[in-house]
Write a structure and sequence with these properties.
Length: about 375
């Protein structure tokens, strides 16, 4: 059943230039989001530089590099297709406001990755130094006093906080009308808390050694799945004026797809992906409570494979693991059937998401594009 936008979403003028932002968001959402990010970050940098050029050069330039360095702009894409699938138009004032809200999600993502890299001690992000490493390198290059690594950590906290602040600023200034803002506010507010809750539970799991498959799925959902798929879809649908049943369907589909997305990332982190070279194994080294390792430990216990369990427990949380040690861990995870079990769970979750989307009654072209997006984020990426 076709749904029209609710009354609080103004009808767009279809005589307006269709791609005022440089690209058609239906054809290349990432390009439009990239343009908006560049414009917004340049504007905020210019404002900040009036108060302190030092701050702009040292902190904002690193933040801008993290945000613009790459990324598939997955979260904005889900918000956009949630909007389009619930009757939102592809052009005009309302569409531009929605795209700005979608852009704010990339700033939330920047906050999450900067803080996550710091907490995990990750040296790089997308082929370049992670933010805390970049700050420490600048400290060393300038010959400043104190410990460079401490400086890098403190500065990264500030940069991540700044990204969070700017995300909210962009949401508030996006241009949504009052009714649309009220409809979107609960999801926006909840999402920002959920991101931090997920990161904390991940940190807590590393500290306690939680190895329950059910708890690891909960962490996967909160840490990544919820704000990657479910909440973006929720936001897009709410802004478009969708009813509660349609929003509930999109959220269910997003929940399944989001967890599948995180489970795929867990596999890639251990087994690698196309063009990734030797996988880092950071989740193993950090002791992260992933579904992959939890299932492996559960199976080792169930089949009394005590030596396999001991080897896994010795490896999980050991930051000094050598490449050959990680290869042994991968072999253990494979022989215990854990990798296949995760693949099966991904397939089940994906099938559930696609079934819900098929039955939701979405408008074209979202009927085709949203399922394609789900398939893309969970597709199997063999080691390269």
């Amino acid at each position: 059943m076709q749904r029209r936008p609710s009354a609080h979403v103004h009808e767009a003028s279809h005589d307006a230039p269709p791609h005022a932002l440089g690209a058609d968001p239906d054809q290349d959402t990432a390009a439009v989001i990239g343009t908006l990010l560049e414009r917004y970050l340049a504007q905020r940098r210019e404002e900040a530089a009036r108060s302190s050029e030092q701050f702009a050069q040292d902190v904002i330039d690193v933040l801008i590099d993290v945000v613009l360095r790459g990324g598939k702009r997955t979260r904005p894409a889900f918000l956009w297709w949630g909007w389009r699938g619930c009757g939102g138009e592809s052009r005009g004032t309302n569409a531009e406001a929605v795209l700005k809200v979608a852009t704010a999600l990339e700033l939330l993502q920047a906050c999450a990755v900067i803080h996550d890299d710091l907490m995990d001690g990750s040296p790089s992000r997308r082929g370049a130094p992670a933010a805390h490493v970049a700050f420490a390198d600048r400290h060393r290059a300038a010959g400043l006093r104190g410990d460079p690594d401490d400086f890098g950590a403190y500065a990264a906290v500030l940069a991540g906080d700044l990204a969070l602040v700017w995300a909210h600023d962009l949401f508030e200034s996006a241009g949504l009308d009052a009714k649309a803002r009220r409809a979107a506010a609960p999801a926006w507010q909840a999402m920002r808390t959920e991101i931090i809750a997920g990161q904390y539970l991940d940190l807590y799991g590393q500290s306690t050694g939680v190895d329950s498959p059910e708890e690891s799925l909960r962490v996967a959902y909160l840490k990544s799945g919820l704000y990657t798929v479910e909440r973006p879809l929720h936001l897009g649908a709410a802004i478009a004026g969708a009813g509660p049943d349609l929003i509930a369907s999109l959220r269910r589909a997003g929940r399944s797809a989001g967890v599948a997305f995180q489970l795929r990332n867990d596999l890639v982190g251990v087994f690698g992906s196309d063009g990734s070279g030797e996988p880092s194994g950071d989740d193993i080294k950090d002791g992260a409570s992933t579904y992959l390792t939890a299932i492996a430990l559960q199976r080792a216990r169930a089949h009394s494979r005590h030596e396999a369990e001991r080897q896994l427990r010795d490896a999980i949380g050991n930051r000094d693991l050598a490449p050959e040690d990680l290869r042994r861990v991968r072999d253990l995870l494979t022989r215990l059937g854990a990798a296949d079990a995760v693949e099966t769970r991904i397939e089940q979750l994906t099938a559930d998401a696609l079934t819900v989307l098929e039955q939701a009654g979405l408008q074209a072209p979202a009927r085709e594009r949203l399922p394609a997006l789900v398939r893309r984020i969970v597709e199997k990426r063999p080691a390269g």
